[in-house]
Amino acid sequence: MHRLLKRQIKKGLGEEYLEDEKLQNFFTLIGDYYVEKDKERILLENALVVNSAELTETNTQLQNMAFFDSLTGLTNRKLFEKELELTLKQIQRNKRNIAVLFFDVDHFKTINDTLGHDIGDELLITVSRTIESRIRSCDTLARWGGDEFVLLLDDLAHIDDCSIIAENIQKAFSEPFDIEGHIIKISFSIGINVYEDGQTALQMLKNADIAMYLSKEKGRDAYSFFTSDISKQILADQKLNESLIKAIDNKEFIVLYQPQVDIATGKITGAEALVRWIHPEHGFTMPFEFIPLAEEKGYIVEIGVQVLEQACIDMKMLLDSGYVLNNIAVNLSLKQIRHQGFVQSVQNILNSTSLNPSYLEFEVTETMIMKEYEHACSVLDTLRNLGITLSIDDFGTGYSSLSYLKRLPIQKIKIDKSFIDEIDRDENDVEITKAIIAMSHSLGLKVLAEGVEEESQLQILRQLKCESYQGYYCSKPVAIQEFKTLVQKQNT
């Protein structure tokens, strides 16, 4: 311990600052207490001798770490929030227009995944410097985290200036950047919230974030202003998203079955499995209310697994109970076909339920196949080799082509409901349906008509030699117990 002759006390911090007469750059931090032996010498317990110059440098580094982003050097989230709160206090006394802009670099994850994090970091540095070059000295740019930035526009002459600044920033990124030999085009999804009386810093940031997600929905490379209507829709989507995650974990989905009927005999030969959601608050929820979001977020893969498993369980139960049925049809989405473990999950479910693959049918749409034709064909070939039946759903509404029909390993065509709705009143629909049936038969494919609701429609389909149908003429989609009753009634 150094011999300490001078003592300086800084009250209120619980620290004693002491200075050696020879080593004047040193002082000691001591906790909350010290022991004084006499007037000239001080005995310190649990003391730490520190170089004050080094401590000053360390404090500066700590302050930078606390308030500035280490990669870009920009203000960080914590300091930005403080500055925004301070600005909001100031405008209570000195009225002026301010706005918060939330930026998200479009497709940044793809850049990181394909080119590496080092290139991604260099790109973020370039982004920060480019944005800084397009804003005013009174504005504050911060890195919010990851590929997100936030900008405080202060003292705006007009609200319209927000659009001008956003467009100027977009123009700055109109040309691609060369990042270590990689030519990268950058765009942003931007959300703008203009201050309104009573808004807090948290509300402004949240609103700008909500508006940013609207820009993503527009297709990215866009900016959007926050409005209360947007807030309601985005918040509803966010709530739906959270509810969907819980629904998957809690297995809140049920499977209904719409009978498929042999036109010649009138007997039920199978069914299409259709998912419904029993929402804990809203109850029975139709697919159009949640499937689009499930597709977008990728939840459809897990939902599809749950539906397929239940459909296979129910089909096996029906067969074991003596019901004579040909197939249970389950819809497939593009996300499922893209999923690496999809085929294996199908095999696992068939094994666990002991269902013969020949009783399982997968329905795919023309549009879905054409989006990733080669990959889709490969997956469908694998499924067909397992013994699973394949059909084209909603035929006639997408890329109807003989060439791709010949290539695909399908056994059935399902004529879209739009051709059946007025088949008993519109001769054009009759001719189109007749042509589809003839073409399918020439390729060795069976045909099922969707959406049959009237006896007159069924009579025409019978004349055109369509094999089967489904629709409300027989039954709406029903739960498994009601489906069993329908089969017993229809097939005896």
TrEMBL record:
<dbReference type="InterPro" id="IPR043128">
    <property type="entry name" value="Rev_trsase/Diguanyl_cyclase"/>
</dbReference>
<dbReference type="InterPro" id="IPR035919">
    <property type="entry name" value="EAL_sf"/>
</dbReference>
<feature type="domain" description="GGDEF">
    <location>
        <begin position="96"/>
        <end position="228"/>
    </location>
</feature>
<dbReference type="InterPro" id="IPR029787">
    <property type="entry name" value="Nucleotide_cyclase"/>
</dbReference>
<dbReference type="GO" id="GO:0071111">
    <property type="term" value="F:cyclic-guanylate-specific phosphodiesterase activity"/>
</dbReference>
<dbReference type="Pfam" id="PF00563">
    <property type="entry name" value="EAL"/>
</dbReference>
<dbReference type="InterPro" id="IPR052155">
    <property type="entry name" value="Biofilm_reg_signaling"/>
</dbReference>
<dbReference type="GO" id="GO:0071732">
    <property type="term" value="P:cellular response to nitric oxide"/>
</dbReference>
<dbReference type="InterPro" id="IPR000160">
    <property type="entry name" value="GGDEF_dom"/>
</dbReference>
<dbReference type="Pfam" id="PF00990">
    <property type="entry name" value="GGDEF"/>
</dbReference>
<protein>
    <submittedName>
        <fullName>EAL domain-containing protein</fullName>
    </submittedName>
</protein>
<feature type="domain" description="EAL">
    <location>
        <begin position="237"/>
        <end position="491"/>
    </location>
</feature>
<dbReference type="InterPro" id="IPR001633">
    <property type="entry name" value="EAL_dom"/>
</dbReference>
